[in-house]
Amino acid sequence: xxxxxxxxxxxxxxxxxxxxxxxxxxxxxxxxxxxxxxxxxxxxxxxxxxxxxxxxxxxxxxxxxxxxxxxxxxxxxxxxxxxxxxxxxxxxxxxxxxxxxxxxxxxxxxxxxxxxxxxxxxxxxxxxxxxxxxxxxxxxxxxxxxxxxxxxxxxxxxxxxxxxxxxxxxxxxxxxxxxxxxxxxxxxxxxxxxxxxxxxxxxxxxxxxxxxxxxxxxxxxxxxxxxxxxxxxxxxxxxxxxxxxxxxxxxxxxxxxxxxxxxxxxxxxxxxxxxxxxxxxxxxxxxxxxxxxxxxxxxxxxxxxxxxxxxxxxxxxxxxxxxxxxxxxxxxxxxxxxxxxxxxxxxxxxxxxxxxxxxxxxxxxxxxxxxxxxxxxxxxxxxxxxxxxxxxxxxxxxxxxxxxxxxxxxxxxxxxxxxxxxxxxxxxxxxxxxxxxxxxxxxxxxxxxxxxxxxxxxxxxxxxxxxxxxxxxxxxxxxxxxxxxxxxxxxxxxxxxxxxxxxxxxxxxxxxxxxxxxxxxxxxxxxxxxxxxxxxxxxxxxxxxxxxxxxxxxxxxxxxxxxxxxxxxxxxxxxxxxxxxxxxxxxxxxxxxxxxxxxxxxxxxxxxxxxxxxxxxxxxxxxxxxxxxxxxxxxxxxxxxxxxxxxxxxxxxxxxxxxxxxxxxxxxxxxxxxxxxxxxxxxxxxxxxxxxxxxxxxxxxxxxxxxxxxxxxxxxxxxxxxxxxxxxxxxxxxxxxxxxxxxxxxxxxxxxxxxxxxxxxxxxxxxxxxxxxxxxxxxxxxxxxxxxxxxxxxxxxxxxxxxxxxxxxxxxxxxxxxxxxxxxxxxxxxxxxxxxxxxxxxxxxxxxxxxxxxxxxxxxxxxxxxxxxxxxxxxxxxxxxxxxxxxxxxxxxxxxxxxxxxxxx
Length: 905
Known about the structure:
Radius of gyration: 33 Å
Structural class: alpha/beta
Strand content: 5-15%
Shape: elongated
Distance between the termini: 78 Å
């Protein structure tokens, strides 16, 4: 027959059926069934077996027999030894190369902490994963031989010493680089602690050490690669995404939170390798359970192809001889905490406590010495088992694959920490341990030299070096690498979009609607339209984007397989294989992962894609700030639109949704340029500035722009305001009181600028106070510029002092300065020291709540009345008005002076 065998996992399930451990009341009948099954396998093949078993299961269900759900396969390797492909490499050369890399990784961390206490570093994670990486480097990872092609690999952060050590052996890093591990401010720059593209932009591609972010980003990167191909932008079917992670990392919600997406999308271009060394920082990952079995059930249930690599080749003869199934039963009985105990105990202990439970198992190993039992390795340390798993993964054409590889944490460290709870914190080895490590892995270093933990590279021209270079050349070159040449692109001119700078003709609209109208035109632009990537969680209709569904479609690799319920509507929900919108569902983390993938397309694919990620502003920096930080680390470019922004502007949704602090959080992100525009033309100017700076000038930045849902008439852009909008401040208008000589400066941002304008009128009409109103689009950009000038002046006292943009604009301006916004007070207070007068700030400190906008703005003391009272009070403090005038204003404006402080409400 054409197909005479089952798939490896299926054959193993049949060969080692857990049901065999139950009481068999009729062994003869069981034998008849099994003999029949064997006959069908041999005569008609696996497909027929699958059909018959399915038919039997359906009949059993129909007759009322409740069959148990089997989420797990037996606790053995998925790929049977008889189905292992031949290993294609030179095992001896690869072993020697791997041993050298192990040594250098260990030596790098040991020397750093011996010479500079407290630097830290990790020895044990790479020690456990060395075989997993080396098999991939020698046979699977494809480099960037043609510039932007090749595989994308998310290296486990704690294993970075091993990746550095390989790059050193390859000649890509110097001995001085390794000496300066975690010392990045030296003349010859050292190596970053973990994968950080920001710090090593020509080496690392993805930051991964913040647990869980690498896994979720790898899923969306694989999906984005397919998005690029489905939209006809670039052929990416030759690129595979690999993600290496630890079993303990799977406790992070981000790690497993999107695995169903990978299966649903059929991402056969994605492979995860989970290093199951059974141990995290403090102890076992699942001391009383089995993490590999737990993860297998989770991934199989989600629809992944699961390949388990548990036992090394030493175990194959025992499993083959295990006709009773007792060995498998024992393997499944033992919990992970006990498996860790076996690692640190001698062979006699393993014989007594593992095999000794059943006399038949002792008989099975009667010819094995204690030393042999002690040295039987786990599957993750066996190159043949690992190669078989990788080959199965890349040949799986229908779904993503996860490889669950069982290893020993700290493998090779011996008494220094192999398999012990202290392993994760192991930073250095003593003289005896160094010598033992050297001997175990046959490193050609003398007894006299070994104490110094010298780095070692095989001689040029040696067989090992020739082999290493040849293997990487065959696979497309060394890796990891990251292209540093940034492509540019032609972007539209603001002159071509003048209609977005004019007034709204008296019609009320929100800044969100203004942005959506602009985006709708941009996606049609002949120069940039196809490169725009709209990204949104399940809020498109909230943001008024449903009109874009039909215009450009929602991306779905499989197209739309149903007729949507709103198909009779103009703006129906339209999915398409070449859809442009990434409508991610209820997942800001997933949406941000897509933003990172799109924002790095310039270096990953050599094509500038322009992501516009619009979301509830409250659920950005507060909720997925770690992913935003990762985006900055990856040097991502694009636009983040904080929709429904403002503590009082989104009035009905209440405390959980009302954002007044995202701009404060954004201060900490160096590449994020945050803006809080009041009018649609400001948003337009900022977007065009961002497109030019990021995609023409090549600057690395993320533009964060908050947009609101409050409708009001939009004015036209004042002449000459463009620079001020981008730099952070410009004068919107001036109002001179008929009799007043006192003048104040009023700052407003976002929708609260309108409250400031109302206050301006009240101050002129009722209190004879003149004022200038300034639209402050970015306090943070003003502060950064002012601080940069201040720092330069401090360090160049003999030079002509520089002036910041804020100082230039405010030169000759008369204070005091009153600022009001829908953000916390700390945001405007950033610029207090750089103003030529006193400053009083109003803001929305405190918890939000549901109410009308008017009531909320009075509650938080940012409405027009609050601005008037604050202005009069500040003038009183400066001796320019009488205290009675302030008290009268409080009464006239119906203001309750005993109202609760909103910060504590």
